[in-house]
Amino acid sequence: AQSVTQPDIHITVSEGASLELRCNYSYGATPYLFWYVQSPGQGLQLLLKYFSGDTLVQGIKGFEAEFKRSQSSFNLRKPSVHWSDAAEYFCAVGSRGYQKVTFGTGTKLQVIP
Amino acid sequence: NAGVTQTPKFQVLKTGQSMTLQCAQDMNHNSMYWYRQDPGMGLRLIYYSASEGTTDKGEVPNGYNVSRLNKREFSLRLESAAPSQTSVYFCASSVDMPQETQYFGPGTRLLVL
After folding, report:
1. Helix (H) and strand (E) counts for chain B?
2. Which residues of chain B make contact with A106, given a CB cutoff of 8 A?
3. To the nearest whole angstrom, how far is the Cα of B80 from the nearest Cα of chain A?
4. Exposure of A62 in the CB half-sphere (CA atoms within 13 A)
5. Which of the residues A46, A51, B28, B93 has the least number of beta carbons within 10 Å of its own beta carbon?
């Protein structure tokens, strides 16, 4: 069975600082990995996804993530955080032959001036 | 395109009452999903429909039923609401599964008293 762990429930960063959100996964086949963002009171929006190929994936809003098979990780990064990045971030994993995507419990990002 | 729409936006029920949450998508997607979101639990899959005419249980199906009415519409029914079903419900759709991006509706906030 596939599963996702986001070890950080809440993270606070200063505006302009760098950001890394952690995601670890387990899967039974080739993983499909996703990061979604949820602004308050809204649905989720895809930031980026990884299926195969280049392990560094670029997404929208200046985010990137790196797939590290040896560490079973897919951490999300941004070099300089903006106040508008304050939201909740969800990592998700799917796998070929398994018809569901499993979401992590989310990391809530607070950005302080 | 409206994307994924959900009705109602907010609902209050008394224990034992029934209701149906409606979801529609105009992106010609094959797959549709119902999730519930609870604090600290992330998104949990209730039911999904891989294609028109099929539905399958997700992680937390007890107390719910679904109907894939046609390719566009996927409804979620609570036959006898319980306080434990107080949650935010999200509908999502994707071209296919599991590797495709899911597009989420704005959510329905349900309070069961």
Report:
1. 0, 11
2. 42
3. 26
4. 11
5. B28
